[in-house]
Design goal:
Elements lengths: L8 H4 L3 H55 L4 E4 L5 E4 L11 E4 L7 E7 L17 E8 L4 E6 L8 E5 L1 E12 L4 E5 L10 E11 L28 E9 L9
Antiparallel strand pairs: 1-2, 3-4, 4-5, 5-6, 6-7, 8-9, 8-10, 10-11
């Protein structure tokens, strides 16, 4: 008997067909694992991009909401004799309105919200160094797709970014008609009296900074101006919020 025939199967090793089959199976497993990893990575990137979009929108909306609630507010001024005087915000005076707006293209649209410096010295950027009697925060988009703001009364103030990835910033104003007991939503150029505005609607279209290639826009989702969302691989969301100007109570009889 040949010595080769006396070897056990484990001692003989693998034949060439067996090695080829094993290699092929290993390659299939590696290919499947690579595909799963790629899909998981794209899903993770999409989730991270969506989370960043929502985070930017929250920061911007919270800032606007806080400033809108203070717009035109009165405050109690302490007198030397122990009494208090209700001081009405000078922002409600002509030429120094608590609410102002400019309607136009994305680079022109702006919103200005004003309140007493003594009521709250912190402006939209967090600064407290102004010595002016009032704080007037102006919001608008810059060329880098960022929602920016500054206190118009603060000397040498420059616009600083609040949120990035903001592609559109649109505003509407709910103007009251006391005689007809109605409210009508208008753009800034359609409002005949800003003192009659009881609420503002803010719309932001926010996009992710990085592209997510497996992201396709939902055709049912629209932008602030009812436009279709671009299909360039970025995550996009449109956020709308109505903020009541609570210091305008009493405008409607």
């Amino acid at each position: 008997m040949s010595p080769l025939n006396e070897l056990t199967p484990s001692e003989r090793g693998y034949t060439l067909p067996e090695l080829l089959i094993g290699t092929a199976l290993s390659l299939l497993v590696i290919a499947a694992a690579t595909g799963v990893y790629g899909t998981s990575k794209q899903t993770w990137n999409a989730m991270a991009a969506a989370d960043a979009v929502h985070a930017n929108a929250r920061v911007a909306m919270r800032n606007l909401h806080e400033q809108a609630h203070m717009a035109g507010a009165a405050y109690l001024k302490s007198n030397n004799n122990g009494t208090f005087t209700v001081e009405i915000s000078p922002n409600e005076d002509a030429g120094q309105a608590a609410l102002a707006g400019v309607n136009g293209t994305k680079s022109v649209e702006s919103l200005t919200l004003g309140h007493w410096h003594a009521l709250d010295a912190i402006d939209c950027q967090g600064n407290t160094g102004s010595t002016h009697a009032s704080v007037r925060n102006d919001y608008k988009l810059n060329t880098s797709k960022e929602l920016s703001c500054k206190d118009l009364n603060l000397t040498n103030s420059t616009y600083q970014a609040l949120a990035e990835g903001v592609e559109d910033f649109q505003l509407r104003y709910a103007q009251a008609n006391p005689s007809a007991q109605t409210l009508q939503w208008k753009t800034a150029n359609q409002v005949t009296d800003m003192a009659q505005v009881l609420a503002i609607e803010v719309c932001l279209r926010v996009a992710s900074i990085n592209t997510v290639h497996n992201t396709k826009p939902n055709p049912q989702l629209k932008g602030c101006q009812d436009e279709a969302l671009p299909a360039d691989g970025r995550v996009r969301r449109t956020f709308k919020r109505v903020v009541a100007l609570r210091n305008r109570d009493g405008v409607m009889p």
